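Bug #2210: token dump truncated for RHOMBOID-like protein 10 chloroplastic?
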Amino acid sequence: MSNSKVSSINFFNGRQWTNVLLALNILVYIAQIATQDELLLWGAKINSLIDKGQLWRLVTSSFLHANVGHLMVNCYSLNSVGPTMEKISGPNRYLALYFASAIASSAMSYWFSEAPAVGASGAVFGLVGSLAVFVMRHRGLVGRGKEDLQHIAHVIAINMAMGLFFKGIDNWGHFGGLLGGVATSWLLGPAWKYESPSSDGRKIFSDKAPIFYLINAKKRS
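Reproduced locally. Full output below:
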């Protein structure tokens, strides 16, 4: 893919789905208040109910929040890192990263913590991990790698602090989301490799994400 083609990919300024996710989190919190937290009880990560087969809680818990402060910090964090990852990854891979991270966060919390948990921070941690993978993969192409990694550390610190001060926020979930985002990004995330110059002097790159190798290997078999 040429540089001109990369720069022309806009995806509604890189934040179409970030805006949708932000709006969804806010609307769900309003619904929580309107139902006097019945929605919270229906969708939170509660281990005993997951054991009974309510597996949807591994996803729905990431759209619920303990209080307005929890919601605001998660929206701030998602707004900080989401548009960057959406523009880097494109909408399909972005949503895959977000939901894979959310499920990994809930699963880690389920395995290591008996306490109920809610919040989008696990999914946000996954996006942070994905950005870290992208920066490390493209150290020779990304000029602001140090600044990006500092921003990543800032978002992590804010969310870890939230886990210490607010009930219902689980740092095991943060860690699970981070691991889920890193693993998913390693498999699916962009891995641009320089191929050759074009006839008009532009640099040609191709996406060498491991998922494409696996798909091609399966086709050959």
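Output looks complete on our side. Residues 3-190 form a domain with the Rhomboid-like fold fold (CATH 1.20.1540.10). Marking as cannot-reproduce; reopen if the truncation happens again.
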